[in-house]
Design a protein that fits this description.
Number of domains: 2
Distance between the termini: 51 Å
Number of helices: 24
Low-confidence stretches: 493-515, 537-545, 554-566
Shape: globular
Mean pLDDT: 75
Helix content: 55-70%
Strand content: under 5%
Number of strands: 2
Radius of gyration: 24 Å
Strand order of the largest sheet: 1-2
């Protein structure tokens, strides 16, 4: 314990340099801006900013990218409260009571409680990371190739199971990601695989091209395909003197903040989209134990404090499996794993000893970043909300320009730009047909490591596949994997997994229908007229469009089936 505190003090010395403080501040500000912008989220934000870190040392680069991750978790609540539009998926629950508070003129207390609760929960998560990571790293040294293979398969299947509505579609995307990951030089024999004589493919498909294409370009194309009028809503701008909650608000919030921090930290250690699961779980807990459950859905401050605290605590604990095991349990940490590998850092049990400065410097920077975010998010909320006033005609071309410029700086290769655009089109089609991109990206990152562990285990056992079931730890992970694969067959679905209407979603999450204000009724009528006009424009060609979509759907399913069999 005292040794960990000593290392943490040394980490503050590393994170406290002027250079690292500057990059921590940049990451927090950029992350908050990304969280404020609806639809972008930390996944796309980190992917877009990876090329900007190539000229930095690994410690500064990871400090900035980590700041973007937890900064986006802070910023995502801003649009949830002000506009009822979640900046990222983990802030969906905040819309239920946060927007109701804003409609009642209490946007200031809601935003302030989010900032205070996130700071407290982030601090608890950081200290949990300090004291749990070293013991887990020592335990992980007992893992061999069979255990690592089984653990990666387990995390891989679980993440695919909870990131989409269809397990089959998620597994299809995961298989495609594994296939893409085999392109290039064989890591064991050194032979070229699936390059078809192209020199550009010898190094494999660039990870940054896939990430930016699926989440950056794909998001732009999705927004272009929708009428921009649907998000042209006014912003409820709180003044500085209205940002502070009352003593009664603080008294009601302290319990949910602490409970959310503890539950979020534990959920962050589980494979899957931990922040999303943590917010749903915290909201359910607070509503169950509340003395006034009827207030939830009508502007209860506990419904904002608990989920947002759980959200940020889960983000901090998600770094434990990433740093200690080298296995990302969530899509944002999968991109951070790619950034670590790009900078020549291999996370795993030996990371604490081999890269002690980076490990403890990043942890210390998280605490500094939480302080920066607390200062930024209290007085500067009106400034961040003004970003929402930028029209899509200006914002979307700038995003495409930034994507192309950042992609070219990776290898100075036009081929990578074409790959990025190709995966951008693929990401658009995947969203149109309800396929998740996270399993593909996770498979692309874990695929090479999974293959190496599998082949090393077989070489150790001289080709005996029984090595995966004869070793107890490996057998436990494989059994857990089988259980998760059998869950959909028995119609057992956890509350965070989508499905048919009425299945897998707790009844307690359905807020009562709100009574619309005159402004909202006028806005709804305007949106309805826009939809009617759009329907009339496509009415004449609807038959041809539906016929084309059926043909494309058949072609898509045939292609996916062929790739899976291949």
């Amino acid at each position: 314990m005292f040794e960990s505190l000593q290392h943490l003090i040394n980490g503050f010395g590393i994170a406290g340099t002027v250079q690292n403080l500057l990059y921590c501040l940049i990451g927090c500000v950029v992350g908050t801006v990304i969280g404020v912008l609806p639809g972008i989220g930390p996944i796309a934000g980190i992917a877009l900013l990876i090329p900007a870190t190539f000229g930095l040392n690994p410690t500064s680069a990871i400090i900035m990218l980590a700041g973007i991750y937890y900064g986006a978790m802070y910023g995502g609540s801003t649009t949830s409260i002000l506009l009822n539009v979640p900046g990222e998926t983990a802030s969906v629950i905040t819309c239920i009571d946060g927007y109701k508070m804003a409609q009642r003129g209490r946007a200031g207390p809601a935003l302030a409680i989010v900032a205070i609760g996130s700071f407290i929960a982030g601090t608890i998560g950081i200290f949990g990371l300090v004291f749990l990571a070293p013991p887990l790293a020592e335990a992980a040294l007992a893992f061999g190739p069979p255990e690592y293979f089984s653990l990666m398969v387990f995390g891989f299947i679980v993440l695919s199971n909870v990131t989409g509505k269809s397990l089959l579609k998620s597994l299809m995307m995961a298989i495609i990601g594994l296939i893409i990951g085999t392109i290039g030089i064989d890591p064991v024999t050194g032979d070229a695989r699936f390059t078809y004589g192209s020199v550009s493919l010898l190094g494999g498909i660039e990870f940054v091209a896939v990430a930016i294409g699926l989440f950056g370009i794909g998001e732009v194309l999705v927004n272009v395909n929708q009428p921009s009028e649907l998000l042209d809503q006014g912003v409820l701008m709180p003044r500085l003197r209205e940002l502070y909650p009352s003593l009664q608000d603080l008294k009601r919030s302290i319990g949910p903040i602490l409970r959310g921090a503890v539950s979020g930290f534990g959920i962050g250690l589980v494979p899957g989209p931990a922040p999303v699961i943590a917010t749903y779980s915290s909201y359910m807990i607070e509503r169950k134990i509340s003395k006034h459950p009827e207030e939830f859905g009508k502007g209860a401050i506990e419904g904002v404090a608990g989920p947002e605290s759980a959200n940020n605590s889960a983000c901090q604990s998600a770094f434990i499996p990433l740093f200690v095991l080298g296995i990302p349990f969530a899509p944002p940490t999968a991109i951070l794993l790619g950034a670590l590998l790009i900078h020549g850092v291999s996370p795993g049990p030996l990371m604490i000893s081999q890269h002690a400065g980076l490990f403890w410097g990043v942890i210390a920077s998280m605490y500094i970043g939480n302080i920066m975010l607390l200062i930024l998010n209290l007085p500067l909320v009106p400034l961040f909300a003004n970003i929402l006033r930028i029209t899509k005609r200006i914002l979307l071309p700038l995003v495409i320009l930034f994507c192309i410029t950042g992609m070219y700086t990776v290898n100075n290769s036009v081929f990578d730009i074409w790959m990025m655009l190709l995966f951008g089109a693929m990401g658009f089609l995947m969203r149109k047909w309800a396929y998740e991109g996270a399993p593909l990206l996770l498979a692309l990152v874990l695929g090479p490591k999974l293959e190496v562990a599998f082949r090393q285990a077989l070489m150790i056992s001289h080709g005996d596949f029984g090595v995966f079931v004869n070793r107890p730890i490996s057998m436990v992970f494989l059994l857990a994997t089988i259980i998760f694969l059998l869950i959909p067959l028995f119609k057992i679905s956890p509350p965070w997994v989508g499905g048919d209407e009425g299945k897998g979603e707790p009844e307690s999450f359905d807020p009562p229908p709100p009574s619309p204000s005159p402004i909202e009724r006028g806005r709804g009528e305007k949106i309805q007229k826009i939809k009617e006009r759009r329907d009339l424009e496509v009415q004449s060609s609807r038959f041809n469009v539906q016929d084309l979509e059926r043909r494309l759907l058949c072609l898509k399913e045939s292609l996916v089936f062929y790739l899976c069999c291949y």
